[in-house]
Amino acid sequence: MKIGFLGTGHITSSVIEGIFKSKLKIKKIYISPRNRLISKKLSKKFKKVDICKNNQHLIDKSNWVFLAITPTVGHQILKKLRFKKNQKIISFISTINLAGLKKYTKTKNIIRVIPLPFIGIKKGPVIISPKDKQVKNFFNMLGKSIEVNDEKISKNFWTTSSFMAPFYNMMMVTSNWLIQKGVNKKVAEDYTRELFLALSEDSKFKNKLSLKQLVRESQTPGGINAQALTELKKKKFYKIQQKVLNSIFKRF
Ligand SMILES: NC(=O)c1ccc[n+]([C@@H]2O[C@H](COP(=O)([O-])OP(=O)(O)OC[C@H]3O[C@@H](n4cnc5c(N)ncnc54)[C@H](OP(=O)(O)O)[C@@H]3O)[C@@H](O)[C@H]2O)c1
User: Fold this and answer.
1) How much distance in Å is there from the Cα of 72 to the middle of ligand 1?
2) For ligand 1, which residues put their CB under 6 angstroms from it?
3) pLDDT per residue over 172-212, tens digit each?
């Protein structure tokens, strides 16, 4: 199969890195010349990656086209391009809906997908909407495909994907606190990374337990975890988290 990426930025780089770590059988990957630095780097690193002279060229050559441009650029350029009627279009664009994409591309075979940067190490959930068996199988080789038929429901997942930076910030606060208490920076960062990794892996390993049960099981009455949770709840830490999710949701 020959695939093309319209927009060679952060997410395209991650997906391509993941593809070459996977068992996916891809004949050629065509990328657009922008961003120049990233496209040059990718074509140098991977023999199967070719930089096309323009966006139309890559669409003409590809069986599947991935839209990895920002919404603003999408609104500007998609209507000027000619897509093939039978071409599968996979859009990563956050805020152009299916109806808009169909109108711009004058095609029907469009799937919206939410990959996340760690797809580059073949990790993480990939939301696919609407359901599509081929696309599901493709992304299952790069992470965990989760199909959502209703486009409205998929908007909720765009919202929760905003918690990457807050998650890392929580790690940073933890590590910085250790450093302030006199722990060596490297030791503090290594410890924090290991702690949060183990917590995530353990929650997956214990997938028979609901998240509510996991919260309950990880504290002893009167213990330090129970105290931390109670104090954070009292200070409305989790109410604020909900409010922030609601406010991000309004963008979609
Ligand atoms: N990053 C993520 O984790 C993530 C996850 C899921 C979905 N998405 C979605 O994926 C899309 C891309 O995100 P990103 O983070 O990869 O953004 P990005 O790094 O800014 O990449 C966008 C790319 O589009 C290029 N571009 C600009 N104008 C173009 C044109 N006329 N023709 C072709 N390419 C053009 C840019 O090149 P220049 O640098 O030369 O302008 C840039 O390389 C967005 O819609 C975003 O919502 C991103």
Assistant:
1) 10
2) 6-12, 32, 34-35, 38, 55, 68-71, 73, 77, 92-94, 114-117
3) 999 999 999 999 999 999 999 999 999 999 999 999 999 99
Task: Specify the fold of 162-249.
Answer: ProC C-terminal domain-like fold (1.10.3730)
| 2-149 and 162-249 agree in CATH topology | no
- First-to-last alpha carbon distance for the chain, in angstroms, is 32
Query: Tens digit of pLDDT for each residue in 156-172?
Result: 999 999 999 999 999 99
CATH 3.40.50.720 fits 2-149, yes or no: yes
Q: Which of 6, 30, 35, 97, when mutated, tests ligand 1's pocket best, judged by the most ligand atoms within 8 Å of its CB? A: 35
Q: For residue 114, how far is its CA from the centre of ligand 1 (angstroms)?
A: 13
What separation in Å is there between the alpha carbon of 69 and the centre of ligand 1? 4
**Bridge-partner residues for 6, per DSSP?**
67
Q: Give residue-wise pLDDT tens across range 123-136.
A: 999 999 999 999 99
Q: Are 127 and 154 in contact (CB under 8 A)?
A: yes
- In whole angstroms, what is the distance from residue 71 CA to residue 104 CA? 12
Q: What is the pLDDT of residues 242-252, one digit of tens each?
A: 999 999 999 88
The full set of domain ranges for the chain reads 2-149, 162-249
Q: Please tell me the distance from the alpha carbon of residue 230 to that of residue 176, in angstroms, as a whole number.
A: 23
Phi, psi (degrees; rounded to nearest 5) at 98:
-60, -45
